[in-house]
Design a protein that fits this description.
One of its GO terms (biological process) is aromatic amino acid family biosynthetic process. The chain has about 280 residues and is of the alpha/beta class. The chain is built from 11 helices and 12 strands.
């Protein structure tokens, strides 16, 4: 029987914890699957993808937009965000909405970052929102916007370095029925029920900008997780700040669902045990 291979791609990639997360899941499920890291740059993506030697790929920065273009079929969240972090080359579940439109050729594209954010916030007791604030305007910000929209937010303030960079988020808001308002880090921000920071790892805002972001911003969910606390979390009002480890865990759980069942909404056998093993691997236990 041929070896089942899975990989995570990105540039850089050495920091990725996906092999530990996925390895823990497949051990619980009794699957002898191989999951490895691979450094793939933007320029090398198309040639690498042509190998078609995997059951599935996890895709991180800076490749999510290219993965979206490469997918022959895309889930709803991937279509909304224009970002794919999971490519699946196996047989999809017939229950996938819209799968009848797939011609059977090419990979299926999913965005599990959205669900990872929703599930991580649910664990923190944050389940319904009216307003939200998002710091940053990249691919992860797109996922954060769709996530808070699914949680009920109808007004979202995007804080970005330029209105031009935030334009794709405004377009997502129009598609999703969310009123997206863009402001800069140098101006006061409207109060919000929650702030999600999607700034690049290690990014540190000047003190005044960080303080403005923390003012009346609700709890902070910072997608950064190493080092922790992040510079922004250290300045957050009342210390109500949470790292992105929960997002990392739960987006990977959804990827495992896809790679094993062909459907991110299909629960795994022994899923509670799988999640516990993945959480333990993430925490280094």
């Amino acid at each position: 029987m041929s070896e089942i291979r899975l990989e995570v791609w990105g540039d850089p990639i050495a920091h990725s914890r996906s092999p530990q997360l996925h390895g823990a899941a497949y051990r619980v499920l009794g699957l002898d699957w191989v999951f490895e890291r691979r450094r793939v740059s933007r320029d090398a993506f198309d040639a690498a993808l042509a190998e078609r030697a995997w059951r599935g790929l996890a895709v991180t920065m800076p490749l999510k937009e290219q993965a979206h273009r490469a997918a022959a079929w895309r889930g709803r969240r991937a279509e909304l965000t224009r970002a794919v972090n999971t490519l699946f080359f196996g047989t999809p579940s017939p229950d996938l909405p819209g799968i009848a439109q797939w011609d059977g050729e090419g990979p299926l594209g999913f965005n599990t970052d959205v669900g990872g954010i929703v599930r991580a916030l649910d664990e923190l007791g944050i389940r319904r929102l009216e307003t939200a604030r998002i710091a940053g305007a990249g691919a992860t910000a797109s996922s954060a916007l769709v996530a808070v929209g699914e949680m009920g937010a109808r007004r979202v303030d995007v804080v970005a370095r330029s209105a031009e960079r935030a334009a794709p988020l405004v377009a997502i808001g129009e598609r999703a029925g969310i009123d997206v308002r863009v402001s800069s880090f140098d101006h006061p921000h409207a109060p919000a029920d929650l702030t999600i920071a999607t700034l690049p790892g290690g990014a540190e805002l000047p003190g005044a900008q960080a303080d403005r972001l923390a003012a009346a911003g609700g709890p902070l969910f910072d997608v950064a997780y190493a080092p922790w606390p992040s510079a922004l979390a250290r300045r957050w009002a009342d210390g109500d700040a949470h790292s992105g480890l929960g997002m990392l865990l739960h987006q990977a759980v959804l990827q495992v669902r896809i790679f094993t069942t062909g459907d991110p909404e299909a629960p795994l056998d022994r899923e509670d045990e799988v999640v516990a093993a993945m959480r333990s691997a993430l925490m280094g236990d």
